[in-house]
Amino acid sequence: MRQCLSASILCSSVLLSLGTHPVLATELVGRAVLPADTFSPGPTAGQLITGDTNGRPVPFVNQQSVQGFSAVLPGPQNNEFQVLTDNGFGSKANSPDSLLRLWGVRANFTKFGNRRSGTVNPVDLQTGRRLDGFTAPSFIQLSDPNRQVNFPIVAEQTFYPGTTIPVDPSIQAGRLLTGADFDLESFRQVADGTFWFGEEFGPFLLHVAATGEVLEPPIPLPNFLGLGSLPLVQSPDNPFLGTNTANLPRSRGFEGMALNASGTKLFTLLEGPLLPDPNRNRLLIHEFDLATKTFTGRVFSYRMENTTESGQSIGDMTAINDEEFLIIERDSRQGDPNNPAFTNPAQFKRVYKININKLDADGFVEKVLLVDLLNISDPRGIGGNGTTNGVFTFPFVTIESVLPLNPRTLLIINDNNYPFSVGRTPGTPDDNEFIQVRLDQPLNLSR
Predict the structure, then answer these.
(1) Cis peptide before 419 (omega within 30 of 0)
(2) Phi/psi of residue 70, each to 5°?
(3) For 246, what's the count of Cα atoms within 13 Å in the CB-facing half-sphere?
(4) How far, in Å, CA of 76 to CA of 104, rounded?
(5) Residues with Cβ < 8 Å from 48, sequence gap 6 or more?
(6) Which of 294, 292, 270 is nearest to 282 (CA)?
(7) Is the dihedral of CA 216, 140, 268, 282 positive or negative?
(8) CA atoms lying within 13 Å on the CB side of residue 393
(9) In order along the chain (447 residues), what is the average pLDDT of each group of 10 residues?
(10) Are strands 27-34 and 118-122 parallel, antiparallel or unpaired?
């Protein structure tokens, strides 16, 4: 990186060159942190967790972890957000006691150095009122009281799948949805107040009331390109797969989902390529019409940058306007490259802008690099332990939330996979970090 130094401050006009994609210099302008060990009242969770928990005892008795944010929406007031927890602990098998919730939070961003990182606090989802803890007013609990889900859910069982552990009575009585039912990775709220969720087990689209109740059966994705023999796109966790062989790898469903600025279409982005697709760096974007509640058959191709990295995938997709979208693309590594304690650190964490109406010669959407998340200027010293020699890194294995706050500023949040991910400090579970990144050039943002 060519640097222009003035009083040890990096000039914001520096032009970086990363691969074949030029990107204007970016600057960290805010940071707030929610501690990893943050919990909410609820039935005991984590009873099926195995492996290294980085010193955290399991299960979490009479608690639900407020962890692993996989998507973000604006909240009722400035610097307030709705954040979505995915399926819980990373797999269908270990998350049947993890409840599916979305939360209201306020980020109190640190704007200057020489002080502690800003805080993230619970708020009332409806009013934005500050709360003392992640109690009921701070979250929406997903449930299926009207029996719209057309396959067996955990709440209908006597024991958690594959165990002799009784399903918690509150899950049964409320028909509460858990991380063994759906793996929610993206969500959007539409004009009528209802939510649409993109999930990975199907993959499915899930339509939910503003109060959390499922409104209709999950909507599957047709195999519009006819890749392989299955009529639908189905992962190994799809409850309708039967004896068929999946055509989508596990945990590679609807990772990103954008609502266009007009509020008429959803655009769902698969996290990985279909198994029968000979083009191994192609991810598919599908258009969904909200008026008819059907996929339209329009399919767009997104080209991943690094096909040699096993686990290269996307983390989120967010609309800028009706044509342009932001996409997080990342490798499967974690850890700051500047920290020698990480022997296999993160190498590739980026935010791109795409235009679905501009295609290259091979039919892929136009793609422009906006942010290298491992190389963010921090002249004010906001980044704390994330900054080395004036450069802030966001080196987490999963970074799954991006939201334009204004034409020049992005909010980006990591998924900390509690209690497993260790991107900041080896042996210590990652916190949820909320960062504000300022761009050199404004986005053509529609509101």
Answers:
(1) yes
(2) -110, -5
(3) 19
(4) 9
(5) 89, 93, 94, 95, 96, 97, 160, 163, 165
(6) 270
(7) negative
(8) 21
(9) 33 37 73 97 97 96 94 95 95 97 97 80 95 97 98 98 98 98 98 98 98 98 98 98 97 97 97 95 97 98 80 94 97 94 95 96 94 96 93 97 98 97 96 96 90
(10) parallel
The identity of residue 142, as a single letter, is L
Q: Which two tokens stand for residue 200?
A: 């990975």
Overall residue count recorded for the chain in this entry: 447
